[in-house]
Input
Amino acid sequence: MGSKNKISMQIKEFIDLNRDMSQAYYEPMCGGCNMIDKMKGKRFASDNNKYLIAMWQGLQSDLDRPYDISKEMHDNAKSDFKNSSNVFYSDFLIGWIGFVASFNGMFFSSYTGNTSADRDYIKEASKNIELQLNLLKDVIFLHIDYSEINYIDRSVIYFDIPYRDTSSYKTGDFDYEKFYSFAELKSKEGQKVFISEYWMPEDRFTKIWSKSVQVGVSLKSSKRIESLFIPKGQKTLQQQTSF
Output
């Protein structure tokens, strides 16, 4: 969660150039909502992780949530998640605990806890999420796969897909060929489609923007080229590449 925050305003500029306020905005893989929280107008955020959507819906309703999350709480919530149960917690709290108390916000990876003497990572994560809430009040959150959404005609769709051939994402279950065909179809139907990726097939998609971005921290950091793509044949008001 939060991986797009560094470049979100630059991506937003491209999308805004090609959108009027009568068009609905969809973000079908919303994650940390670091793009949609900057957009205006009618907005839909969705994901196929039901706990993520339950978390955002619950935060919109200001449901009670813990800020002091122990490893035992994290383990119990993880057990509910793995068993598709609600023995310990509701879907909302499973989502909340799973995202704010897991290492790097990676859903139920290792427990992050207070991993240094002067930092409380759980409170930092929860504070960062809650700072967004005023920007998400009227967003419609949906638990649904991107391919099953009933998109409003002439809408704008921004996809932040799992990046192909990277170790940072568990992409084994993501069908890239199915997604490519779906994105092309939506564009041909008149939707404005934008996709974040490092690479996409050049014969099917056009790169309209790119930027070198530091990935990771300290000695493990590296530079990657973040890019924005559209399906071939889709018109944009501006095209440029910057590094």
Notes: Residues 71-83 form the longest helix (13 residues). The radius of gyration is 18 Å. Residues 239-243 have pLDDT under 50 and may be disordered.
